[in-house]
């Protein structure tokens, strides 16, 4: 397996020139404006005519150890013994999410499927239902990773491009990896701390939260945010929600806000908020978030590449973490990279939701406010 990275800016175009024109897979991440025309997608198609393309808009993408908001970064991968298959499905609204996941899973299912990388629209999808559909089609033994596309802190539109289709809204796409040569590692960590009283979810519908302890959920957030409440949903990212089933307290997940309806006093989250579950607000401190990023990379770092081969790490971190970290956001990238074996290539982006196995159950789930790391390497076999 071989990797190369290229970057596009409005001033300089693509740099450097492609050295792996026979690459089998090209992943790309970029600012919404840079991707919206479809030009960057078509340029990558021309540079890598035989490759499967998969990319999305972001809340910032990783350009080496730096973060860029306006350009595009692409990683081309040439596999030695791993086959690929691409699947796409429309997500017109969150109600379509489960069916979209089923469609993706059915298109990718095969006995030698060893892993799936998923990128999805970040605003119109219910990530919990999307992954449930994938798991229903593939079973729970196939690891899933990836993330929901972003749009900075604006939450206006997100884009996914796949195969011969340039980036567009309301699309979910996935690439399946096949064969016995690929080794896939996974890691996920948060670093957030719960605070305040524990509350019960008394009214919800899927990923729409109506009430906590019988009161409008939006009222609670507005009290905590004060004057910053006018900036929701962006400012609500500073206070994600930890939720868990009281019967399974060790199986907790974090949810982040995607939208608010002030007239209805409701909040839309990236994944399900089941009625009856317990919820608690969280906040983050920079040192803890950076340490968690290092922990996630350490979990994913096991397994080596064949002699002379490359390793790739795909980091997907939450836009909420970037907002809290501010100028220190590059510290979490550096901390994660430091835990990876030497000469590991890495790429990634800031998302509206992260997809990775749960550390407790092993089931692949939607996470929020997490750093997730997926490593790919082919063995000599």
UniProtKB/TrEMBL annotation:
Pfam families registered for this protein in UniProt: FIST (PF08495), FIST_C (PF10442)
Domain FIST: 22-216
Signal peptide: none
All copies of domain FIST C-domain, residue ranges: 217-358
Entry protein name: FIST N-terminal domain-containing protein
């Amino acid at each position: 397996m071989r990797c190369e990275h290229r970057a596009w800016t409005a001033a300089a175009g693509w740099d450097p020139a492609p050295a792996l024109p026979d690459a089998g897979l090209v992943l790309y991440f970029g600012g919404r404006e840079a991707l919206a025309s479809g030009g960057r997608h078509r340029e990558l198609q021309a540079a890598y005519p035989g490759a499967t393309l998969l990319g999305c808009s972001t809340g910032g993408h990783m350009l080496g150890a730096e973060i860029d908001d306006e350009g595009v970064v692409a990683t081309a991968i040439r596999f030695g013994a791993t086959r690929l298959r691409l699947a796409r499905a429309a997500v017109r609204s969150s109600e379509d999410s489960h069916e979209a996941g089923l469609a993706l899973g059915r298109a990718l299912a095969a006995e030698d499927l060893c892993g799936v990388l998923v990128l999805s629209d970040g605003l119109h999808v219910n990530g919990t239902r999307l992954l449930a559909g994938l798991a229903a089609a593939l079973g729970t033994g196939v690891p899933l990773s990836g993330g929901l596309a972003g749009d900075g802190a604006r939450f206006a539109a997100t884009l996914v491009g796949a195969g011969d289709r340039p980036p567009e809204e309301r699309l979910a796409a996935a690439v399946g990896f096949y064969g016995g040569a690929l080794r896939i590692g996974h890691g996920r960590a948060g670093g957030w701390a719960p605070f305040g009283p524990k509350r019960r979810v008394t009214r919800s519908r899927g990923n729409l939260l109506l009430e906590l302890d019988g009161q409008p959920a939006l009222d609670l957030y507005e009290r905590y945010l004060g004057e910053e409440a006018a900036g929701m949903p962006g400012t609500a990212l500073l206070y994600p929600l930890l939720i868990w089933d009281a019967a399974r307290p060790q199986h907790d997940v974090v949810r982040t806000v995607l939208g608010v309806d002030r007239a209805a006093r409701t909040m839309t989250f990236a994944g399900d908020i089941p009625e009856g579950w317990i919820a608690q607000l969280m906040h983050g401190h920079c040192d803890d978030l950076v340490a968690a990023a290092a922990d996630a990379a350490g979990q994913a770092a096991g397994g080596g590449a064949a002699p002379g081969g490359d390793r790739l790490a795909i980091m997907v971190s939450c836009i909420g973490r970037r907002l809290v970290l501010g100028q220190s956001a590059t510290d979490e990238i550096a901390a994660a990279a430091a835990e990876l074996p030497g000469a590991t290539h890495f790429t990634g982006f800031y998302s509206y939701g992260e997809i990775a196995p749960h550390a407790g159950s092993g089931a692949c789930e939607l996470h929020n406010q997490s750093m997730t790391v997926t490593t790919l390497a082919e063995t000599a076999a």
